[in-house]
Amino acid sequence: MQNGTNAERCHAFPYEVNDVSSNGIRQVRDGFLDNLFSMLFYVTCRILIARFVQILDLFNLALKSRHRVV
Predict the structure, then answer these.
(1) Left, alpha or beta for 55 (phi > 0: left; psi -120 to 50: alpha)?
(2) DSSP element (H, E) containing 1
(3) What CA–CA distance (Å, rounded) separates 57 from 63?
(4) pLDDT for residue 17 is more than 80
(5) Which has the higher per-residue pLDDT, 10 or 67?
C-alpha cells in the first residue's frame, strides 16, 4: 500500500510541477497584460485630457480675439 502511494506520488509529482510552472507563466503573462492595458489606458487618458485642454485653449483664444475685434 505504501509503495503504491509512493509510486502515485512519484508519477503525480512531475505533473504538479508542470502545473505550477504553467500557472506561474500564466500569472506572469496575466500580470504583464494587466500592466500593458493599464499603461495603455493611462496613456489614452493623458492624450484625451491633453486634447481637451488644447481645444479649451483654442476656444479661449478665439473668444479673446473676438472680444478684441468688437
Answers:
(1) alpha
(2) none
(3) 10
(4) no
(5) 67
Total residue count of the chain as it appears in this document: 70
Q: Could you give the 3-state DSSP secondary structure of residue 70?
A: coil
User: How many angstroms separate the Cα of 8 from the Cα of each of 1, 35, 39, 44?
Assistant: 11, 40, 46, 53
At 33, which amino acid appears? L
pLDDT digits (tens, 9 = 90+) for 56-67: 999 998 888 876
Residue type, 52: F
Q: Which is more confidently placed, 56 or 7?
A: 56
CA pair distance 64, 70, nearest whole angstrom: 10
What is the C-alpha separation between 19 and 17, in angstroms, rounded? 5
